[in-house]
Amino acid sequence: MPNKEIEVLTKRRTHYALSNTLPLPAAEVDALIREAIRLAPSSFNSQSSRAVILFGAESVKLWNIIRETLRKIVPAEAFASTDKKMDSFAAGAGTVLFFEDSDTIAKLQEQYPLYADNFPIFSEQSAGMAQLAVWSALSEAGIGGSLQHYNPLPDMEIAATWDLPASWKLRAQMPFGVPVAEPGPKSFVDDATRFKTFG
Predict the structure, then answer these.
(1) Would 92 disulfide with which of 107, 122, 173, 175, CB 3.0-4.6 Å?
(2) In Å, what is the CA distance from 59 to each residue of 53, 143, 144?
(3) Neighbours of 138 (CB within 10 A)
(4) Where mainly located (predicted)?
(5) Residues 44 and 109: beta-carbon distance below 8 Å
(6) Residues 132, 133, 139: CA angle, nearest 5 degrees
(7) pLDDT single digits (tens) 93-108
(8) Strand, helix or coil at 168?
(9) What is the pLDDT of residues 141-195, one digit of tens each?
(10) By three-state DSSP, how is residue 29 classified?
(11) Gyration radius of the chain's alpha carbons
(12) d(CA 199, CA 194)
């Protein structure tokens, strides 16, 4: 039977080839990202997810920061593929930086000591839900993206460049823009390996 949510999840794919155009004004894309994160669930309603939304030159600046950070550790003879990857991310219209606020997590650990060890885990779950919410919302608006994880390598420079609170811990980067190529077919692990149903 048709299900709108499954249709949205099916449509959401990883797009590496992006243009720097958008089907909506940047202000509407910004509002869409904010609303998706605002509505994403979080344990104890902690609302620990934070985001920095970069458009245009600010997004390019981010990927140049990451590029130069990687240049220091990737062997020169192998850097061409890394350079190409950074170019593809910088070619998009923008990037969402996803963070989790460690101060929020610490307060919950103090407030609910029985769950203290689990709050960092709950935070990661909240981060993943926020990322999926944004990715799905962008996809529905005709905007493609991919989820990248270059943290913690560029974290300090990113925090300094955009004057971010020390409690904001970078979790992922999502370059976005209008897709200029279709993704390849998606493969799936066999259901018998992933699922068990009883009753």
Answers:
(1) 175
(2) 8, 16, 15
(3) 25
(4) cytoplasm
(5) no
(6) 85
(7) 999 999 999 999 999 9
(8) strand
(9) 999 999 999 999 999 999 999 999 999 999 999 999 999 998 888 999 999 999 9
(10) helix
(11) 18
(12) 17
* DSSP string for 94-162: EEEEEEEEHHHHHHHHHH-GGGGGGHHHHHHHHHHHHHHHHHHHHHHTT-EE--B--TTTTHHHHHHHT
Question: Confidence class of residue 2 from pLDDT cuts 50, 70 and 90?
Answer: confident
Q: Which residues contact residue 50 at a Cβ distance below 8 angstroms, ignoring those fewer than 6 apart? A: 98, 99, 100, 101, 168
pTM, two decimal places: 0.96
Q: Tokens 């130069």: give the residue.
A: 68
- The whole-angstrom separation of Cα 174 and Cα 176 is 6
Residues near 92 by Cβ (< 8 Å), separated by ≥ 6? 18, 19, 20, 59, 145, 175, 176, 177
Copy the structure tokens of residue 112: 């609910």
* Per-residue pLDDT tens digits for 178-188: 999 988 889 99
**Domains, the chain, ranges and CATH?**
15-182 (3.40.109.10)
The enclosing H or E element of 4 equals: helix 4-11
